[in-house]
């Protein structure tokens, strides 16, 4: 009977939702107390999601499931690093999330179907409209960040593109969930770039939007992959 794994998955998912809501709220709060609280809450996000995901996909050895689990681990490293305010912490976070997007892209490519030019065009258009702007802004703020930011923008755009080419052997609901998740992830990072490089002062609302779209995006990707039948 799958009752116990189902209960464990539901419990872990509930914990993730609660942590995501809490961190989204804290992200927009000023002061040292909120920042200290985030050092406890934010690093717990991905372990909670990963626990739910691993429980739901227990026994699966597909490249899609393994790649998603690897991406979640890299995302945890990125979450933790970006709690710091130094340039090395930022670059570590960028590198960790770049690795996460490579893992996601590799996972999605393992179940790709016929090419969908529309998805590729959308990804290319998103890259063309966001990457040069954010890269230029990063260069003006700190020239050494221009290269990493440009590379990261390219990697996440490629990850999004790979999610638009999932094969028809996957359930339509799973494909829709994954694609919505990658789109929100891309939106979150775009908002983060605007916050960090374009605004003269941090915006509490924008910071909350970054975390809301990020945590929802991660959750939708995990849900989409978890609902793919085991034989796919």
Automatic annotation (TrEMBL):
First-listed, main subcellular location of the protein, grouped into a coarse class: membrane
InterPro entries: TMEM86B-like
GO molecular function list: hydrolase activity
Membrane topology: Multi-pass membrane protein
Top-level taxon of origin: Bacteria
UniProt keyword annotations, A-Z: Membrane, Signal, Transmembrane, Transmembrane helix
GO cellular component: membrane
UniProt-annotated location(s): Membrane
Signal sequence range: 1-20
Family: Belongs to the TMEM86 family.
Protein name (record): Lysoplasmalogenase
Species this protein is from: Nocardioides mesophilus
Taxonomic lineage of the native organism: Bacteria, Bacillati, Actinomycetota, Actinomycetes, Propionibacteriales
């Amino acid at each position: 009977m799958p009752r116990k794994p189902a209960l464990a998955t539901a419990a872990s998912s509930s914990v993730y939702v609660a942590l995501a809501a809490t961190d989204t709220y804290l992200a927009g709060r000023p002061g040292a107390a909120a920042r200290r609280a985030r050092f406890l809450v934010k690093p717990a996000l991905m372990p909670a999601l990963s626990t739910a995901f691993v429980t739901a996909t227990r026994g699966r050895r597909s490249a899609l499931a393994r790649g998603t689990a690897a991406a979640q681990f890299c995302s945890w490293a990125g979450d933790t690093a970006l709690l710091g305010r130094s340039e090395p912490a930022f670059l570590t976070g960028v590198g960790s999330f770049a690795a996460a997007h490579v893992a996601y892209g590799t996972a999605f490519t393992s179940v790709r179907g016929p090419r969908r030019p529309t998805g590729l065009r959308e990804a290319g258009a998103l890259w063309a409209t966001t990457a040069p702007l954010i890269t230029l802004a990063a260069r003006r703020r700190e020239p050494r960040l221009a290269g990493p930011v440009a590379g990261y923008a390219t990697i996440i755009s490629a990850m999004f593109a790979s999610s638009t080419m999932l094969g028809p052997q996957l359930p339509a609901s799973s494909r829709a969930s994954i694609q919505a998740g990658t789109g929100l992830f891309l939106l979150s990072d775009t908002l983060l770039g605007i916050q960090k490089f374009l605004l003269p002062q941090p915006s509490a609302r924008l910071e909350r939007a970054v975390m809301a779209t990020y945590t929802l995006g991660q959750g939708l990707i995990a849900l989409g992959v978890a609902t793919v039948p085991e034989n796919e």
